[in-house]
C-alpha cells in the first residue's frame, strides 16, 4: 500500500493516479495533525490493514490532479542522515559509517518551492536519497532484527548548501527550511521484496543527473538502523535518509524544476527560487563526485595495504 496525506493533511491511499480517502477508517488512531495521524496509522497498521485493503479495492478515488499532495511525514521526530554511504560505482569497501541529524523543519511537500537562503554559501546541490520509515519503537536494535522495525520506504532529496569544499563542514547547510523534500507516499515494506533492487533518479529541468541503484549502498539498511539505534530511541514515523551516490550531483538555482523518482515508490517534484538570483555552472558538477570517489579509492587502497 501507498500511504499519503493530501489537502489539509487528510490521510489517503494512492491508487494509480488517484487517492482514496481513508479518514473514516483511521479516525480511531488520528492525531491532532498530519504527522500524528500518520504515526497512528503506522503504529496500528496491522489491525487496520484489512479495512484499508477493502477500501483500496472498492473505495471511491479522487484524481491526484484535483488534490494537493503533502509530505506523508510533515514533521518526523527525527530525520537520520547517513553520510557518504554509497560506493560511487567503485565496488569496493565503504567509508567508515557515520550519520547526523537533520532538522524536521526541512521537510517540504511534493510540488513545493524552496527559497534559497541569503547566506554566503559556496554552492547548493541536490542529493537524491532512499528513505526508510520506522514502524516500531526500538533502542539498541540488532542488525538481525532491523527489518522488524521498518514500516516502509519513501523518496527524499537532501538539499545541501555547502559552505566549504570539505563535506564534513557543511552539515548545518542541509537544515534550512524546505531542504528535505519527502514523498509522495510511504510504500509499505511488504511491497518491496528487495530494497537493494531499486533505481534512484533525479532530473533538473528535464536533464537526468543522478541515476544509480540501491545496490551501490555501502552500509546496508540493518547496519544503519543498528548504528543510530545504539545512540537514540527510534520511534514510529522517524525517517532514515540513507545517503547518495555523488556522481551526477549538480547545482540548484533560481528557476530550476526538480523531479526525483525511486522505482515502485513514485516521483516527487519541487521548484527553486532565489531572491538574490545567484548562478552556478549548470549541469553535473563533476568536481564533487570526483573528490568523493578519489577519497573513497584512497580509503580502499589503505584497507587493502593493511591486509
In short, what is this structure?
The chain folds into 2 domains: 2-70, no CATH class; 79-306, Fumarylacetoacetate hydrolase, domain 2, CATH 3.90.850.
Q: What's the CATH architecture name of the largest domain? A: Alpha-Beta Complex
Beginning-to-end CA distance, first to last residue: 46 Å
- CATH topology description of the largest domain: Fumarylacetoacetate hydrolase, domain 2
CATH superfamily of the largest domain: Fumarylacetoacetase-like, C-terminal domain
Approximately what portion of the residues adopt beta-strand conformation? 25-35%
Q: What is the CATH level 1 assignment of the largest domain? A: Alpha Beta
- Could you state the order of secondary-structure elements as H and E? EEEHHEEEEEEEEEEEEEHEEEH
Number of strands: 19
Q: Estimate the mean pLDDT confidence.
A: 96
Fraction in helix = 10-25%
Protein structure class:
alpha+beta
**Rg for CA atoms:** 19 Å
Describe how the helices and strands are arranged.
Layout: E1 2-6, E2 10-15, E3 18-21, H1 34-43, H2 45-58, E4 61-63, E5 69-70, E6 79-82, E7 99-102, E8 107-108, E9 112-115, E10 123-125, E11 128-134, E12 150-157, E13 160-162, E14 180-188, E15 199-204, E16 207-213, H3 221-229, E17 239-241, E18 257-262, E19 266-273, H4 286-306
Parallel strand pairs: 6-17, 8-14, 9-19
Antiparallel strand pairs: 1-2, 1-5, 1-14, 2-3, 3-4, 6-7, 10-13, 11-12, 11-17, 12-14, 15-16, 15-18, 18-19
